[in-house]
Amino acid sequence: MINQTQWLSQLPALAGIAYLFAVAPRLAVIDLRERRLPNRLVLPGMPVALLGQLVAVAINPATAQQLFNALMACLVAFGLTLLTNMRFGLGMGDVKLFVLIALSLGWFSPWLVAAVWVFASMTGVLQVGVSALRARTLRLRGTIALGPHLLAGFVLAACLAAWMAIAGSGG
Predict the structure, then answer these.
(1) How far is CA 12 from each of CA 19, 22, 76, 157, rounded to the nearest angstrom?
(2) What is the per-residue pLDDT for 2?
(3) Among 139, 170, 36, CA closest to 94
(4) Which of 103, 107, 95 is nearest to 146 (CA)?
(5) Whole-angstrom Cα distance, residue 160 to residue 154?
(6) Dihedral sign, CA of 123, 125, 126, 131?
(7) Taking a C-beta distance cutoff of 8 angstroms, is the pair 41, 122 a contact?
(8) Range list of β-strands (E), the chain
(9) Distance (Å) of CA 5 to CA 95, 164, 168
(10) Is residue 112 exposed (0-12), middle (13-18) or buried (19+ Cβ within 10 Å)?
(11) CA angle, 167 as apex, 166 and 171 as ends, to 5°?
(12) At residue 74, does pLDDT exceed 80?
């Protein structure tokens, strides 16, 4: 169970999540229209998330393990998505967006990061399947905007994390 002091000391670590919630609608629309995720919207979130987490550790040094978890989630996310970029053509905007999501959610649980990837993969495959049925072909050509799938997975994972925190605190 988390006490009020521990909960308050973790508030700065929510900076990356808050940033993502702020830019998610705009990123989704841009990705759907243009098939790109602009650096000017994605990259500023990384120092915002990291700075918030560093402040949380400065307030409560016992959260240093959470910072380590977030950094490891970020590193693994970068490695796997970069490999996916090189092998399967995942866009670099999607790589950077997933790294930001991993940094932001990894503080709370690396499993949330995995859940985002699984959700985005499943909904992306569903979109391709529906498109193939509409076109009445099994050919896989063209691209999909993965950003909205990643962002939807992020929103669901963040809500799940909030629910778990509230349920765990007895509130």
Answers:
(1) 12, 16, 23, 18
(2) 55
(3) 36
(4) 95
(5) 10
(6) positive
(7) no
(8) none
(9) 35, 18, 15
(10) buried
(11) 60
(12) yes
User: What H or E segment, with its residue span, contains residue 51?
Assistant: helix 45-59
Mapping DSSP to helix (H, G, I), strand (E, B) and coil, where does residue 38 land? coil
Contact call for residues 161 and 108 (beta carbons, < 8 A) = yes
Is the separation of the CB atoms in 115 and 31 below 8 Å? no
Is it the case that residue 166 has pLDDT exceeding 80?
Answer: no
Each residue's pLDDT tens digit, 116-153: 999 999 998 898 888 888 877 766 667 789 999 999 99
| The pLDDT value given to residue 38 | 97
The three-state secondary structure class of 68 is helix
- pLDDT exceeds 90 at position 28: yes
Residues in contact with 33: Cβ distance below 8 Å, sequence separation at least 6, in sequence order: none
- DSSP letters, 96-113, are HHHHHHHHHHHTT-HHHH
Quick one: tokens of 55?
């402040």
